[in-house]
Design goal:
heterodimer; A: 156 residues; alpha+beta; Beta-Lactamase; 5-stranded antiparallel beta sheet; two-stranded antiparallel ribbon; 7 strands; 41% helix; B: 977 residues; Immunoglobulin-like; 6-stranded antiparallel beta sheet; 46 helices; 53% helix; clathrin adaptor activity (chain B); protein transport (chain B); coated pit (chain B); protein kinase binding (chain B); cell membrane (chain B)
Chain lengths: 156, 977
């Protein structure tokens, strides 16, 4: 069954800026996944694809049978936006879903930077829930999402 | 701190976050957090009732603390209270706290059900969405029980707002995934399908996901979705790039919805209704046509969105596998992507083509791209792309191209990443077996595998070649000849010795007529490898020897002498000792007839599924099978290559091969004692009066044997080589000992140390290098009290090395007294770049017994490094100058030693390059430069090592002006960390 397993935003040093889980993991598993994702993603450069079916470290990843999952990621300045999906899911659709999400954040926070995500962490969750829900893409229209976010912002 | 002002509303929270960020140490952070926790606790416990704002602020602080990784054991009640607030911001924080922390405290759920119920009934769309998101985020069974009945109602109610419908659809999806039994199908299902017609594209986007999930378990209930999905898709695909306004993304209309609709259609076979099918085929053609149109934007977002739809379209075409025209068009499109400048597209094209290769309609079209795919295997930088290329070659392989593909994969194997070598070995072995027209090619291929990647050739693979050779008498003579030749190589892998030993033991007689491979020659060739091998291999060889006694009676005396030698008969390893004792006795007491029966040629193996295919499937995991055993494509293959028919005799004959096929800790093949039938025979033999029932040497014997060297007239002398020639050529010396590479590695970054040590001899090294010259002192220490005779260490240059490296040695005294040390001086000149080190062959006689082994001399190309200091600017300029792909070599690898910056520095300096500070913007990284000095030329080298402590991995990049040098240095250095 397809769909998103988790969304992670991490910086180069491995600090998590957002972790959104769409499957049941216990805390140890979450921590392990966060570390594994950081390890496989940060060693890649522009000549690599934006997709990782974890290669050599897969064996150590007992939490998931990693062959059934893949990480689609994109780097923006010092931040890595990573989405873990089913191995059969559409790579480019999720790659652009990341970008769509980043463009919304950028608009919402007026030139978003890492600190915005730190200080407004509770708002980032709202943005995520507007665009992704239950591991699926919920809304893709930037206009509609931003309109909704501004409406919520105006509420007390 | 500009963002502080953005934390609008909750200034206290922003200040707290700032404080945490300013903490200089973990301790300071914990101190600050504890202070805050105490503060919040006192506020929550205080007499004064907190207002909503303060409650929200403190709950939010607790959440922040939790997200930093600290446990939170209070505040849950306050969070639950926030849910009943009328204010959105307070409710939102309450729901967020619960969604994030619910894992660690499931009792919370019961407390919040009431609040959720109220919000769902509130008719306030914002509150309803908050409640639905909470259910979707938590997704527990308890929530399913409480709300699974309400949500379908909200989803299909006429008066629900669009945003509520979106959330309700996905909320229901989550509950259905978690506990399908709680979501009964009902009259609402038909109405859900009609959401595909909804005006609001966001509602459709959410609903398609729900329908896709539901229809997998209830395909008939949702069948009507096919025509609705086709017409929706058709409207999107044929719309102009701006028609859909909000849902157009970089000039692509509704890419995500299109992808989702195409995936929904993959849950069903092609539409039965001709009109629907016609419309759908039109859609698919339109997508393929659009791929050929010029892009409407140069942005990657545009092409990605467009190609997301294209790849999903191709998936649907492959899923239907019924439209030859579309399949071939898809293949041509992917063929264009194979050469695209974007790595992502090349990767996805290879992946997608892999499935096209298994369709009978497109298999031939895929094959036309073979050269491009082979090229990808050779040149792609990303290992996962190379992996896909290897997968595709495997998938497109058939009898017509098997030889080409297998030889390319073999070539790739020489440089392949360690992570995928074993898989490539398996694939080559399978293809070679499956498409072998003549079995000599198969045997050659497997022996090549062992030669190139011996370490990665698993038991399954070399067992299999033995099975096939045993079962096919037309290849046995060829196999014997080939292994015999392979074993003559100065260095051959232990797996080669195993295969060679087994095959010669069975079929050595087929080549014994040729004087160049006469029985004594065969035997001494095998026995020359014996001492360098592991116990398991030596055990196998002992079985070969006893088989030789049967095959070649003329070798009996020689072999008996070997078995009788103290090193066998009293071997510390029980298995070896037992074999030596039993085989010796068997050969002495059994009549020729009995011997011939016991040691008869192995019966054919019963044919089962190829054990290597099974292994590859295990590696790939479930679901990989279909692509692997593609019998449907080439049904004729079963006749020739499906295996050998079981012969009736094997069915009734229990043979040791039964274990061998079981592939667990099987005893080495060809060990008659392991077989029940043969075992009985042996018992009979041992019961005979002539047999010595001793199971091992008596203590006295053992004691004596240690004191006294074997008598000089020991038959062992038969095997001893004549007085060593003045300068043996490479063919006269044995292969390097198995540890030779490991020993060599120790000297890559240092010049002095102990190169080798065993019970008899220690070899120390001291060396210095300047420019392209070096001097090395070797110290040979006799650790025994007995004189070594005919002591002759020599340096040999295998292959081209003679033209690359000149080594002058002085002869040393032929006798080394017990406890004494002799020194040998080597003058070394590097003529040009070289990749393999010279070999050091050491031979001497100890107590009359010849000793010989070969080491790798610790002279590697980096010894001729001249460190070069340069400024950052120069470094970058040169780095850029060396930007051709072949000038760069890169490796990403796991740390084998603790990652200590000082140790790393020392190793890099020992490696020979200069270390440049302040060049890499990241101070954790190491950057070095140097020039390799050879007589003929100089090679400039730049290197960069990036440790990743978190991942315990390194990335090493080398750029030099010579391709092999980059690769070689990269390999040498990568093994040091």
């Amino acid at each position: 069954m397809g769909g998103i397993r988790f969304i992670l935003i991490q910086n180069r040093a491995g600090k998590t800026r957002l972790a959104k889980w769409y499957m049941q993991f216990d805390d140890d598993e979450k921590q392990k996944l966060i570390e594994e994702v950081h390890a496989v993603v940060t060693v890649r450069d522009a000549k690599h694809t934006n997709f990782v079916e974890v290669i050599s470290v897969a064996d150590s990843l007992s939490v998931l049978q990693f062959r059934n999952f893949k990480i689609i990621y994109r780097r923006y300045a010092g931040l890595y936006f990573c989405i873990c999906v089913d191995v059969n899911d559409n790579n480019l659709a999720y790659l652009e879903a990341i970008h769509n999400f980043v463009e919304v954040l950028n608009e919402y926070f007026h030139n978003v930077c890492e600190l915005d995500l730190v200080f407004n962490f509770y708002k980032v969750y709202t943005v995520v829930d507007e665009m992704f829900l239950a591991g699926e893409i919920r809304e893709t229209s930037q206009t509609k999402v931003l309109k909704q976010l501004l409406m919520l912002q105006s509420l007390e | 701190m500009p963002a502080v002002s953005k934390g609008d509303g909750m200034r206290g929270l922003a200040v707290f976050i700032s404080d945490i960020r300013n903490c200089k140490s973990k301790e300071a952070e914990i101190k600050r957090i504890n202070k805050e926790l105490a503060n919040i606790r006192s506020k929550f416990k205080g007499d004064k009732a907190l207002d909503g704002y303060s409650k929200k602020k403190y709950v939010c602080k607790l959440l922040f603390i939790f997200l930093l990784g600290h446990d939170i054991d209070f505040g849950h009640m306050e969070a639950v209270n926030l849910l009943s607030s009328n204010k959105y911001t307070e409710k939102q924080i309450g729901y967020l706290f619960i969604s994030v922390l619910v894992n660690s405290n499931s009792e919370l759920i019961r407390l919040i059900n009431n609040a959720i119920k109220n919000d769902l009934a509130s008719r306030n769309p914002t509150f309803m969405c908050l409640a639905l998101h909470c259910i979707a985020n938590v997704g527990s069974r308890e929530m399913g029980e409480a709300f699974a009945a309400d949500i379908p109602r909200i989803l299909v109610a006429g008066d629900s707002m669009d945003s509520v419908k979106q959330s309700a659809a996905l909320c229901l999806l989550r509950l259905y995934k978690a506990s399908p039994d709680l979501v009964p199908m009902g009259e609402w299902t038909a109405r859900v399908v009609h959401l595909l017609n909804d005006q609001h594209m966001g509602v459709v986007t959410a609903a398609v996901s729900l329908i896709t999930c539901l229809c997998k378990k209830n395909p008939d209930d949702f069948k009507t979705c096919i025509s609705l999905a086709v017409s929706r898709l058709s409207r999107i695909v044929s719309s102009a790039s701006t028609d859909l306004q909000d849902y157009t993304y970089y000039f692509v209309p509704a890419p995500w919805l299109s992808v989702k609709l195409l995936r929904l259609l993959q849950c069903y076979p092609p539409p039965e209704d001709a009109a629907v099918k016609g419309r759908l085929v039109e859609c698919l053609e339109t997508v393929l046509n659009k791929a050929q149109e010029p892009p409407k934007s140069k942005k990657v977002q545009h092409s990605n969105a467009k190609n997301a739809i294209l790849f999903e379209t191709i998936s649907l075409i492959i899923h239907y596998d019924s439209e030859p025209n579309l399949l071939v068009r898809a293949c041509n499109q992917l063929g264009q992507f194979l050469q695209h400048r974007e790595t992502n597209l090349r990767y996805l094209a290879l992946e997608s083509m892999c499935t096209l290769a298994s369709s009978e309609f497109s298999h031939e079209a895929v094959k036309t791209h073979i050269d491009t795919v082979i090229n990808a295997l050779k040149t792609e930088r990303d290992v996962s792309v190379r992996q896909r290329a290897a997968d595709l070659l495997y998938a497109m392989c058939d009898r017509s191209n098997a030889k080409q593909i297998v030889s390319e994969m073999l070539r790739y194997l020489e440089t392949a990443d360690y992570a995928i070598r074993e898989e490539i070995v398996l694939k080559v072995a399978i293809l070679a077996e499956k498409y072998a027209v003549d079995y000599s090619w198969y045997v050659d291929t497997i022996l090549n595998l062992i030669r190139i990647a011996g370490d990665y050739v698993s038991e399954e693979v070399w067992y299999r070649v033995l099975q096939i050779v045993t079962n096919r008498d037309d290849v046995q003579g060829y196999a014997a000849k080939t292994v015999f030749e392979a074993l003559q190589a100065p260095a051959c892998h232990e797996n080669m010795v195993k295969v060679g030993g087994y095959i010669l033991g069975e079929f050595g007689n087929l080549i014994a007529g040729d004087p160049r491979s006469s029985p004594p020659v065969q035997f001494s060739l095998l026995h020359s490898k014996f001492h360098l091998c592991s116990v398991a291999t030596r055990a196998l060889l002992l079985s070969t020897y006893i088989k030789f006694i049967n095959l070649f009676p003329e070798t009996k005396a020689t072999i008996q002498a070997v078995l009788r030698a103290g090193s066998q008969l009293r071997n510390a390893d029980v298995e070896l000792q037992q074999r030596a004792v039993e085989y010796l006795t068997l050969s002495s007491v059994a009549s020729t007839d009995v011997l011939a029966t016991v040691l008869e040629e192995m019966p054919p193996f019963p044919e089962r599924e190829s054990s290597i295919l099974a292994k590859l499937k295990r590696k790939k995991g479930p679901g990989a099978g279909s692509a692997l055993d593609d019998g449907r494509r080439d049904p004729s293959s079963n006749d020739i290559n499906g295996g050998v028919e079981p012969t009736p005799s094997t069915v009734s004959t229990p043979s040791p091969s039964a274990d061998l096929l079981g592939l667990r800790a099987a005893p080495p093949p060809a060990a008659p004692p392991a077989s029940a039938g043969a075992g009985n025979l042996l018992v009979d033999v041992f019961d005979g009066p002539a047999a010595q029932p001793s199971l091992g040497p008596t203590p006295e014997e053992a004691f004596l044997s240690e004191l006294e060297p074997p008598a000089p007239e020991s038959p062992m002398a038969l095997l001893a080589d004549p007085a060593p020639a003045a300068d043996p050529g490479p063919e006269d010396i044995g292969p390097p000992i198995p540890e030779a590479d490991e020993l060599l590695n120790k000297f890559v970054c240092k010049n002095n140390g102990v190169l080798f040590e065993n019970q008899l001899l220690q070899i120390g090294v001291k060396s210095e290098f300047r420019q392209n010259l070096g001097r090395m002192y070797l110290f040979y220490g006799n650790k025994t009290s007995v004189q070594f005779q005919n002591f002759s260490p020599t340096v040999v240059h295998p292959g081209d090395l003679q033209t690359q490296l000149a080594v002058q040695t002085k002869r040393v005294a032929a006798q080394v007294d017990g406890g004494a040390q002799v020194q040998q001086v080597l003058n070394i000149e590097c003529l040009r770049d070289f990749l393999t080190p010279p070999l050091l062959s050491v031979r001497f006689r100890y107590g009359g017994a010849p000793q010989a082994f070969t080491l790798k001399l610790p002279v590697t190309i980096n010894k001729f490094f001249q460190p070069t200091e340069m400024a950052a600017q120069d470094f970058f300029q040169r780095w850029k100058q060396l930007s051709l792909p072949q000038q760069e070599a890169q490796k990403i690898f796991k740390a084998n030693h603790p990652m200590d910056a000082e140790v790393t520095k020392a190793k890099l300096l020992g490696f020979g390059s200069a270390l440049l500070d302040n060049v890499d913007p990241n101070p954790e990284n190491f950057v070095g430069a140097g020039i390799i000095q050879t007589k003929a030329l100089q090679v400039g080298c730049l290197l960069r090592l990036e440790p990743n402590a978190q991942a315990q991995m390194y990335r090493l990049t080398l750029r030099t002006s010579k391709e092999p040098v980059s690769r070689h240095l990269c390999e040498l250095l990568a093994q040091q960390f």
